[in-house]
Write a structure and sequence with these properties.
Layout lengths: L12 E9 L4 H15 L5 E7 L1 H4 L6 E8 L2 H8 L2 H10 L3 E10 L1 H4 L13 H27 L4 H27 L1 H4 L9
Antiparallel strand pairs: 1-3, 1-4, 2-3
Helix pairs in contact: 1-4, 6-7
Length: about 200
């Protein structure tokens, strides 16, 4: 497993890649994926990543693998994405997968993107912190309740890697969008026009 994504800066960008692996090609895919992750780790701004096996996520589809990784800025992520090294890595993985690769990019900035419409100021940082905590605290608590007993025999680092990866995924695609929608009036209060 690759290094966990720890101490992620506020401007960091997280990427979730989902690939369906051909039956019987799992070992070769995992090796090619590990090689690609190792290559990415040499690029500026790389914060860490992890290959999540189907049995680790508790899903029913035994062919779906997820890769979660992060860079400290969108610019550093773009540097990796446009590199010949990544192109070679994708070519090495291609024979072992089928169907379309799904890719989703997120970060705290995406969670709190301003609503479409008239230009609005971004929410104050303390409000972003409150909403982030409101999402992360119950999500982490739920993960410990659900997975704590199952992972109790694991070493600390693998436990942290699995739990934090799941929290990032759940926050980004489930909890944060719901919270920001629910609290939109508080995050983006209506501004009254100035009378001159």
């Amino acid at each position: 497993m690759a290094a966990a994504i720890l101490d992620k800066p506020a401007g960091a960008v997280t990427v979730l890649i989902t690939r369906r692996v051909k039956a019987g090609h799992e070992t070769a895919f995992e090796k090619a994926s590990a090689d690609m992750t190792a290559a990415a780790s040499t690029f500026p701004g790389y914060l860490g990543g992890q290959l999540v096996h189907p049995d680790e996520e508790g899903g029913e589809d035994a062919a779906l693998y997820h890769v979660v990784f992060a860079f400290d800025t969108a610019e550093h992520l773009q540097g990796w994405q446009q590199s010949p090294t990544r192109t070679l890595g994708l070519a090495a993985i291609a024979p072992y997968i089928e169907g379309q690769t799904q890719r989703q990019v997120s970060g705290l900035g995406h969670w709190f993107a301003a609503p479409v419409g008239p230009k609005q100021m971004p929410p104050q940082r303390w409000k972003v912190a409150v909403v982030t905590w409101l999402g992360i605290c119950p999500t982490v608590y739920a993960m410990f309740l659900l997975l704590g007993p199952l992972l109790a025999s694991w070493a600390l680092l693998p436990r942290v890697m699995v739990l934090t990866s799941l929290v990032v995924i759940i926050m980004t695609w489930l909890v944060a969008p719901q919270l920001t929608q629910l609290l939109k009036p508080w995050l983006y209060p209506a501004t009254r026009p100035h009378i001159s």
